[in-house]
């Protein structure tokens, strides 16, 4: 039977693969971007900075089939991402594209924009300083595990005194747009992506 457990460093490769397999608006992003790019943006920095806020859904053989990662302080995380993570890892592998011609170029440009005060900076909505990323393989979806993962992370954030949590979803991802309201989030803004918030008090 599947179960949620804390993240372990030995999970990195399996979680990175899940990130790619769900990275194209919920579908398989293999070959859409450099397969290392999405984990460098949306998974690995969270495992590095907040391993205690990372939880894994594993099957009966303890193989990861989903995960949730997050931060309790979006502003501090994004500053660290720009100044430490991306400058030392991302920027050395993916030069800043000029001009932006492809979807992969746009994703790399997003990496450069984070923590720089730009439009794509991921500034937290007022009252929702924490944020998350959650991904489940198709075989793990529809069984309530997304709600369980959200609950586990929310409890960990409450224990830190965090007042609210937010998540963003591409408007091209109808599954995610339906998921967040279903598990208690409310719309709190967003242009290109929809942003949802959950009060933790």
UniProtKB/TrEMBL annotation:
PROSITE patterns: GNAT (PS51186)
Pfam family membership, one: Acetyltransf_1
Any one GO molecular function term: acyltransferase activity, transferring groups other than amino-acyl groups
InterPro entries cross-referenced by the UniProt entry: Acyl_CoA_acyltransferase (IPR016181), Glycosyl_Hydrolase_84 (IPR051822), GNAT_dom (IPR000182)
Domain N-acetyltransferase: 16-201
SUPFAM superfamilies: Acyl-CoA N-acyltransferases (Nat)
Keyword entries, A-Z: Transferase
Protein name stated in the entry: Acetyltransferase (GNAT) family protein
């Amino acid at each position: 039977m599947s179960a949620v457990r804390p993240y372990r460093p030995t999970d990195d490769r399996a979680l990175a693969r899940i990130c790619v397999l769900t990275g194209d608006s919920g579908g398989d992003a293999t070959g859409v971007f450099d397969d290392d790019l999405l984990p460098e943006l949306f998974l690995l920095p969270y495992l590095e900075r907040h391993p205690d806020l990372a939880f894994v859904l594993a099957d009966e053989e303890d193989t990861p089939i989903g995960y949730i990662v997050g931060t309790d302080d979006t502003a501090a995380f994004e500053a660290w991402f720009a100044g430490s993570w991306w400058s030392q890892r991302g920027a050395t592998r993916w030069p800043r594209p000029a001009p932006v011609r492809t979807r992969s170029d746009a994703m790399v440009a997003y990496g450069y924009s984070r923590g720089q005060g730009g439009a794509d900076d991921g500034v937290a909505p007022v009252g929702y300083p924490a944020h998350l990323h959650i991904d489940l393989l198709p075989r793990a979806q529809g069984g309530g595990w997304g709600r369980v993962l959200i609950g586990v992370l929310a409890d960990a954030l409450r224990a830190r005194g965090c007042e609210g949590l937010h998540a963003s979803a591409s408007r091209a991802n109808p599954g995610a747009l339906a998921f967040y309201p279903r598990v208690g989030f409310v719309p709190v803004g967003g242009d290109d992506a929809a942003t949802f918030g959950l009060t933790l008090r």
